[in-house]
C-alpha cells in the first residue's frame, strides 16, 4: 500500500514540476530597452541590441592591416631570436611529465650549452599528442616544460634564464596510435639569442 502511495505521489509531483521546466522565454525584440513596457525586466535600463542598421556597435573601429603590430615572419620570442635544432627535444611517456633516464643527457647538454654561453637563454615548449582535451593537453604541456626546467635547475642553471611555454596538442598529428604519436610528446629546447 505504501509503495503504491509513494509512486502516486511521485507522479503527481512530476506532473506539476516538469511543465515549469519546459516553459520558454520569448526573445527580446530588436531595439527593445530593458525596463520598457514590452520587456519583462526593469532593472538595467540599457538597450540590449541597438536598433537600426547595426551601426550602433562602434563606428570608431578601423580595419587593421595584415601584420600590423605583429611580426609574422620573425622567428623571435620576447624580442630574442629563436634558434631551433641545436639542442635535441626531450621525449615523454604517454600522459607523463616525468623525465626518463634516457632523456636526461639531452638536458645535461642544454645545461652545458647555457653555462658555455652566458648570454643565451632557453625557451622550453611543451607539446602533447592528440589524445585528451585541449585544456588537459595545455596543462600537460605546461607540466612537461616545468619538469624539464626544474631538472635544469638541479644541474645549476638559473631558472631566470629559462622560459616555459605550453603548446599542448596544437601541433599534434591527429589520428595516430599511441605508439606512433610519441614524437608529439616532447619538450622542444629552443635557444634564445
General description of the model:
There is one protein chain. By secondary structure, the protein is α+β, with helices and mostly antiparallel strands. It has a domain of 117 residues: 2-Layer Sandwich (60s Ribosomal Protein L30, Chain: A). Helices cover 28% and strands 15% of the residues. The chain is built from three helices and six strands; from the N terminus they run αβββαβαββ. Strands 1, 2, 3, 4, 5 and 6 form a six-stranded mixed sheet that branches. The chain is elongated, with a radius of gyration of 29 Å. The N and C termini lie far apart (83 Å). About 18% of the residues have low confidence.
CATH architecture descriptor of the domain at 76-192: 2-Layer Sandwich
Number-wise, the strands total: 6
The multimeric state of the shown protein is single chain
Strand content: 15-25%
Helical content band: 25-40%
CATH fold call of the domain at 76-192: 60s Ribosomal Protein L30, Chain: A
Q: CATH homologous superfamily of the domain at 76-192 - what is it?
A: OmpA-like domain
Mean pLDDT: 79
Keywords:
alpha+beta; 193 residues; 15% strand; 60s Ribosomal Protein L30, Chain: A
What does the secondary structure layout of this molecule look like, with pairings?
Blueprint: H1 2-21, E1 76-77, E2 80-83, E3 90-91, H2 104-116, E4 121-127, H3 134-154, E5 162-168, E6 186-192
Kindly summarize this structure in a few lines.
With about 190 residues, the chain is an alpha+beta fold. It has a domain at about 75-190: 2-Layer Sandwich (60s Ribosomal Protein L30, Chain: A).
Amino acid at each position: 500500500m505504501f509503495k503504491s502511495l509513494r509512486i502516486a505521489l511521485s507522479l503527481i509531483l512530476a506532473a506539476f514540476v516538469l511543465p515549469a521546466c519546459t516553459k520558454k522565454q520569448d526573445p527580446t525584440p530588436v531595439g527593445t530597452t530593458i525596463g520598457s513596457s514590452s520587456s519583462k525586466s526593469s532593472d538595467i535600463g540599457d538597450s540590449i541590441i541597438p536598433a537600426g542598421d547595426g551601426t550602433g556597435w562602434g563606428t570608431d573601429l578601423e580595419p587593421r592591416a595584415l601584420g600590423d603590430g605583429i611580426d609574422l615572419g620573425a622567428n623571435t620570442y620576447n624580442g630574442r631570436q629563436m634558434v631551433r635544432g641545436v639542442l635535441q627535444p626531450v621525449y615523454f611517456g604517454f600522459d607523463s611529465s616525468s623525465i626518463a633516464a634516457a632523456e636526461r643527457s639531452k638536458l645535461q647538454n642544454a645545461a652545458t650549452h647555457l653555462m658555455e654561453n652566458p648570454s643565451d637563454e632557453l625557451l622550453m615548449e611543451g607539446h602533447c599528442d592528440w589524445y585528451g582535451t585541449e585544456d588537459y593537453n595545455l596543462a600537460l604541456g605546461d607540466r612537461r616544460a616545468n619538469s624539464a626546467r626544474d631538472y635544469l635547475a638541479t644541474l645549476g642553471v638559473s631558472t631566470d634564464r629559462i622560459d616555459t611555454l605550453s603548446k599542448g596538442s596544437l601541433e599534434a598529428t591527429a589520428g595516430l596510435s599511441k605508439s606512433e604519436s610519441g614524437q608529439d610528446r616532447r619538450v622542444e629546447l629552443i635557444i634564445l639569442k
